[in-house]
Amino acid sequence: MSAVRRLASASLLAPRYRRAWFWWGGSRFLLLLWSLQALPYFSRGAVIGDVNIYHGWADTMTGGSFPSSDPQWQYPPAAALIMLAPKLIAHIGIGYVNSFFFVALGADAVVFRLLLGQADRIAAETGREAHLAGVWAWVLGGFALGPILFMRYDVIVTALAVGGMVATVKATTRRSGERADRITWDLRGVLLGVGAVVKVWPVVLLAGLPGGR
């Protein structure tokens, strides 16, 4: 199994995907420079406000309280995990706000990797050239948003939702019969369920679950 995984990972580095990797890496590097103020961005101050709010909530929670009385807190309880996550790396000296950007970048990378892997898997199964429309939509659409992509926690929720959808397809193709049905929907349900308790919108993807699940 590990050899298969290594082979699959190697195929994603094939020359046919080089341009997608180049554009993702280049665009995200530029977004990160804007976010970190290494390059000027015309409206950074207008879009960074949410991260500063997350920072305040994280400080409140590490102090032993929960910001439920704050009228700006309009999120499911598990959103607290995302607000606290940057504190795990903030201690290296880059601060909470910059740490949040790197956490968001990591989630963005996960989505890119999942979409590229899905395109590669379908190409291998069908014997056709990989269709990268979804990959390019993510790369270019994310860049079009500007640094706000790294200044909201939605990209982290999106990674959970995309993971749930991709896991569904993988489980379906790898197993058969009743066991496939159970594993497929359980795995999808777990990932989408986690996404839903972090932010509500992924719950709509559960509409694809079969009756009784």
Automatic annotation (TrEMBL):
GO terms for cellular component: plasma membrane. The chain crosses the membrane at residues 21-42, 88-111, 132-150, 156-173, 185-209. Keywords: Cell membrane, Membrane, Transferase, Transmembrane, Transmembrane helix. Its main location: membrane. GO terms for molecular function: hexosyltransferase activity. It is a multi-pass membrane protein. The keyword Membrane applies. It is found in: Cell membrane. Belongs to the glycosyltransferase 87 family. This is DUF2029 domain-containing protein. It comes from Actinocrinis puniceicyclus.
